[in-house]
TrEMBL record:
InterPro entries on file: 4Fe4S_Fe-S-bd (IPR017896), 4Fe4S_Fe_S_CS (IPR017900), SCP2_sterol-bd_dom (IPR003033), SCP2_sterol-bd_dom_sf (IPR036527)
Species per Swiss-Prot/TrEMBL record: Brevibacillus fluminis
Protein name: 4Fe-4S ferredoxin
Domain 4Fe-4S ferredoxin-type: 181-210
Keywords: Iron, Iron-sulfur, Metal-binding
């Protein structure tokens, strides 16, 4: 085989390149490569950084040789995102997502030509929903913050110091070390002006910094995975087309078709639209704040639109009170708990604090069978705490077979039958269980 022309050519190249990457790669060279590929800004983070502690295992599983992560941003045009026509805003999102994908591909292509192994995970989709239940292979936001590309604002988006939050993020994993790496910026570009609070149609962003994940997910991502699941089940549960049209109007059907044909559409993302942070963005806001609000935020507030909320949720209460001219549409968010681990991890994200305003209780959960676990959930002062194990004295105890509990949450079995069969046992006032359920409408 050593005499084969391909093997001879490879050996010659290997000899010529011997030692090329045995020393750290020059950071400026890599930065220039990324900018020439089309990135608007870029930063670098080593795999050992503490900011990646909660991601390192997943990153190494994805790319075992990972040593340095390249984080880059692509700018979005501001005026399309501010449009009340969501087709205009979503076209901008999809166009720049394509840019991120192309640029990541180009960076990997250039590095590969230099003998560097590299991998570019998708900017957001396709989603890995069939693996661990986590909807992404890598979390771009904390990597971007670690790489000095911005900080997280109260709307939970990365705000770049120059471009503001009108950016999309990409990440490339490499198997080389660099001469230097980036550090987080030492201030938060977020102005805490609360325009995102004022513009959000479902009250997902609290003036005190609280974030209601369920409210945001149910409305803004209606045409993504969860809402799509709910829509499909609405179809299958309808006896005929007349019954379907009574549940879903023609405009909703057309909108879902649009998402299926041209890419899933965000229903709002108004928090991005109105944000004035960033050196390139802040000028009009500082010049005339009242006019900025009237031109940018007010049209989104005044827009007559359908707003998707879970029944008896904080979002339903908020929309009816704050935006009576918007049409409330009661739906399921389509989220399915696949495991006890996911159930416990998801409780803080699904918690509706206004539904818990009069509740102060400690719950002990014990799960048996296929997935064993113990947990303590404390709800008081409109907050929730979830910890492993049984801590303190419980006001209410629940012991359940893990698979039965998951089926119960999915409404595939009834509470009465689960109790009669002994698959679920409780100790304590049942009113506390009902109060607990009210905090997590789905």
């Amino acid at each position: 085989m050593n005499d084969h022309p391909t093997v001879k050519m490879y050996s010659m190249k290997l000899e010529a390149a011997h030692g090329t990457h045995s020393t750290p790669v020059d950071t400026q060279w890599l930065r220039d490569l990324c900018l020439q590929a089309g990135a608007d800004d870029v930063g670098f983070v080593s795999i050992g950084r503490t900011e990646l502690d909660d991601q390192r295992k997943d990153i190494m599983s994805l790319f075992p040789e990972a040593r340095t992560l390249i984080s880059f941003v692509c700018k979005m045009n501001r005026e399309p995102l501010r449009s009340t026509a969501r087709s205009v805003a979503n076209a901008e999102f999809h166009h720049v997502i394509d840019d991120v994908t192309h640029i990541g591909h180009q960076i990997v292509k250039e590095l590969e030509a230099q003998g560097v192994k590299a991998l570019n995970p998708p900017a957001g989709f396709p989603m890995e929903v069939t693996s661990t239940g986590k909807a992404w292979v890598i979390s771009h936001k904390p990597i971007a913050v670690a790489a000095g590309l911005g900080q997280i604002g109260i709307h939970r988006n990365v705000i770049h110091p120059k471009f503001g939050n009108f950016i999309l993020l990409g990440t490339v994993l490499t198997n080389v070390d660099l001469t230097t790496e980036s550090q987080p910026i030492d201030y938060n570009p977020c102005l805490e002006c609360k325009l995102c609070v004022a513009a959000c149609p479902v009250g997902a962003i609290g003036a005190d910094g609280h974030f209601n994940f369920s409210a945001c997910y149910t409305h803004n991502y209606r045409e993504f995975s969860g809402g799509f699941t709910d829509w499909v089940e609405t179809i299958t549960d309808s006896k005929n087309s007349k019954e379907y049209r009574a549940k879903v109007n023609d405009a909703e059907t057309a909108s879902m078709w649009q998402s299926l044909s041209f890419g899933a559409n965000y229903k709002a993302a108004y928090c991005l639209s109105v944000c004035p942070a960033g050196e390139d963005v802040i000028g009009p806001f500082l010049a005339d704040r009242k006019n900025f609000f009237q031109e940018v935020a007010k049209p989104l507030q005044d827009k007559k639109e359908m707003v998707y909320v879970v029944p008896r949720s904080d979002a339903e209460e908020y929309v009816r009170k704050r935006f009576p001219h918007k049409q409330v549409r009661l739906v399921s968010n389509g989220l399915r708990t696949k495991s006890i681990r996911a159930f416990l991890a998801g409780l803080p994200h699904m918690f509706q604090r206004n539904q818990a305003k009069d509740l102060a209780a400690t719950y002990h959960f014990t799960f048996t069978g296929e997935e064993e676990a113990q947990a303590t959930v404390v709800i008081q002062n409109k907050t929730i705490s979830v910890k492993a194990g049984h801590i303190g004295d419980a006001d209410f105890q629940l012991i359940a077979d893990s698979q039965t509990w998951i089926r119960l949450l999915a409404k595939e079995t009834g509470t009465l039958s689960a109790v009669i069969s002994g698959k679920i046992r409780t100790k304590g006032p049942l009113k506390l269980l009902k109060a607990f359920s009210r905090c997590f409408p789905s």
